[in-house]
């Protein structure tokens, strides 16, 4: 709550203190950092001194200085009488004279008094980047409708690096008005004592990996964290033709609380299916493997049309209606209304599916083809499609197998307009096979990181490239990020340091509750040469910090994901010789070795609505809280992974959390709620259920969507001519099916340095533990069976070759 005499005193000495306020950041006990906080001093253009009109979109509006004030003689009233889109707001003027100076890494308490006649008003925040200039930062708090003067207080997130000033005010984005007065801004004092290391010095700097004593009983390449804290591990056949022919399809549920596994009967081969948590916490599993490739090359992998739902409560699968097409390796992205959209994958005839699929949350079924917008585009396999804050989808360029889509390799898809706009800047777009992409913390910042990747078909050394894009920009483009740190790679004779531009594909990227990203695992080549390296990416500084590496190989069919206790679990590895790594690793990040963890001691409830203010209590001070969507990851891909900031209003141990009003920022469903202290130490997560759009009624808040990336200059295409499929080579997985069983992957192209001789190729296969391989049929395209006895790489073959 603001002290009125503070505002009066500031006005009296404003001329004397202006220079002081703007030259150095003020401590919490200093004068209010807002100049003219009660609008008492007139300025120019019909606005008070240090305040300006702002906003965008198609709407009718008025700004007026009214005598209906909380204190003094003036207040600011912003009204909208008609709105199609956009907002209007009175902001602190974006100038060196008026905008408060801030310090990177600090937080600030913002407060004001208000009255509103609309539920569509919130406190919004902009920041000045010393390099990029003024830009939108985030929305902080939705204001409830109030007919009398009411105080509102909220704490900013930590100020990002490079920020020297901020400005803020109340945005009105629905018909009605907001009247505000008596603004204050104070820096939050540092109260948290330094962290105390509870491990070794190396562990406190780099974290620790532990290999669990109990192995994963199934060959799972799909990992889904359930809303009860358990983990669904889907194997299907586990990429085993023997299991497939026997009809042996499995899943397991892992319980982190006691380390136990429960094997679950699985109705179909869900190997390389798509999956996503629905709004109610059940898991939608779509398509999977209908057939393995034929030895004679007549067909490749085939995707079926079946779809299932896994219920965490009963731990059973039930069937839904069918998809319109087969989709082996499909995407799955939840929209802000709870619906799910899916693209890509292989059809029942091994060709590429150009059919988009749409799951209706209201009808609990896949919609018929005529009800789904179609561009008839082939997006590839597991195309990473991330939901943007305005409801469009950003294809990041991360995918699986071979080359990227034509064009720039990245695009924005507008489902409602049914248009695709190419986005530039992605480096080396055709070597981003099994790269990882994440919407960086917090989701409100709308920045995406893409890292690593290779190309299974051409099989070069995987790269170190990273790219970052800011989707808040009017015309966003990827820019090069820092290279992935190098680790060691096993080329067949034990680990050696990576050199040159060696990086990794099969990389996992995990959002952590301290706001950083763990990248871990990977391999240098197609299902070979594991890379041992891990690092923490900091979105604020755009840097990687190397940390302890997983001792286990984590290449093809591996995954890593966040557990509710703040640790990271890593599973799987399926090298080219067809074996499987059943060992499970657990990473304890450095933040869990910095002393006592905060605890969320109470919550009002676990059912949350958009625009809510939800109260929790904690046992020691926290500086931030967030919702993290639980993982549903496979093949380096989890496009729904996101970290949603919850701006704070703090009163001792009582912390009010301000929930976004935009379902596109936080699609409906179950989330892990973490509270984090000043040392980056998170609480154990509490599970909360964010209600879907049906919870949004006229007396709550509409989604507050800002105008970003609206005038893209890239090539725009609308619906194409209807086509039924795209021709795809049967070697799409980068494996030559003339040799060995289906789950064995002899590369179509050997790594650089392997000569095109039988001896050299067989030597590489021997080093990677393939053994002798049966030749399927009469063809021997790689020259591995010169004596034509039907077995590759025998002694006589090597002598002849």
UniProtKB/TrEMBL annotation:
Domain annotation Glyoxal oxidase N-terminal: ranges: 251-578
Keywords, ordered alphabetically: Signal
Classification via InterPro entries: Gal_Oxase/kelch_b-propeller, Gal_Oxidase_central_sf, Glyoxal_oxidase_N, GO-like_E_set, Ig-like_fold, Ig_E-set, TAT_signal
GO terms classed as biological process: carbohydrate metabolic process
Keyword Hydrolase listed: no
Name of the protein described by the UniProt record: DUF1929 domain-containing protein
Domain Galactose oxidase-like Early set: 597-689
SUPFAM superfamilies listed in its UniProt record: E set domains, Galactose oxidase, central domain
Signal peptide extent: 1-30
